[in-house]
Amino acid sequence: MIKFGLFSVALIISMYTLSMPLTIITDIDPPAQFYDKQGRLTGFGIDLVTEIQTRVGNEDNIISIIPWARAYDMIQNQPKVVLFLMARNKQRNDKFQWVGPVLEFTFGLYGKSESKLEINSIADARKIRSIGVYKDDVRDKLLTSMGFKNLERVNYNLQNVKMLMNDRIDLYAASSISFWVDAEEAGYKPSDIKLVYAFHSVQAYIAMSADVPQHTVNQWNKALNDMIAEGVYSKILKQYYPTASPPSPAITTFE
Q1: d(C-alpha 178, C-alpha 150), whole Å
Q2: Dihedral sign, CA of 40, 66, 217, 106?
Q3: 81 neighbors 209 (Cβ within 8 angstroms)
Q4: pLDDT value at position 182?
Q5: Distance CA 57, CA 179 (A)
Q6: CATH 1.20.1250.20 fits 6-102+204-240, yes or no
Q7: Do residues 44 and 239 make contact, with C-beta atoms less than 8 angstroms apart?
């Protein structure tokens, strides 16, 4: 019988983990990730990640589509997970490793264009009857941390628009660069929805679990920086977010 000491077992486990392929996951959140009319997975995040994979020689090219709540659980509890796109904040900053930033935008509360609601503060927003959020998304987490008790959680973001337009909720939390896509994907016009109150600015990244080797994180960041320098990143950004600007330098500390 072959016997292994504790050190040997730990070394074998460590070597096995290092040799494991990356598990690359995302959710459906157009125009970052969505299926086109031909059923092909596409979008800003998809194009960005696949271009990085090509540049670093990564062959773990199967991107799995998983609802956000489950995907977020995976990156916290399973080895060598890559999840995109993820907003970076105080609660997440030390849990993961980061490639980016790749997007910068503002979170806001959006209502029907004819809405008479007036919100001038977070305190005002807490008094609204109901606000739709994407379950366990950063907007859900952020508003929950601010003491909101009036959140209606859904498993797919487009449900928020449909609930809003059918008067089942008063507002929903969306981003400044994609609310119009939410509207169109749900069968409405962007002009049917308006910003009622902006509450937070954020940068989004490609997130990697803590056990991903540092050299892998560095490779992905170098590939992204090369894409920015060559104009490839800008081309991808403008294709999916025509009005968006490249993000400012990474914000790495949070109060």
Answers
A1: 23
A2: positive
A3: yes
A4: 87
A5: 34
A6: no
A7: yes
What's at 49, amino acid-wise? V
Radius of gyration over alpha carbons of the chain, in Å? 20
pLDDT in tens, 206-247: 999 999 999 999 999 999 999 999 999 999 999 999 988 999
> Which of 3-17, 105-119, 165-179, 224-238 is predicted with the least confidence, judged by mean pLDDT?
3-17
- Separation of alpha carbons 18 and 36, rounded Å: 35
**Structure token digits, residue 231:** 């104009």
Does 3 score more than 80 pLDDT? Answer: no
**Cα(215)–Cα(210) distance, integer angstroms:** 12
CATH 3.40.630.30 fits 105-201, yes or no: no
Domain locations in the chain as residue ranges? 6-102+204-240, 105-201
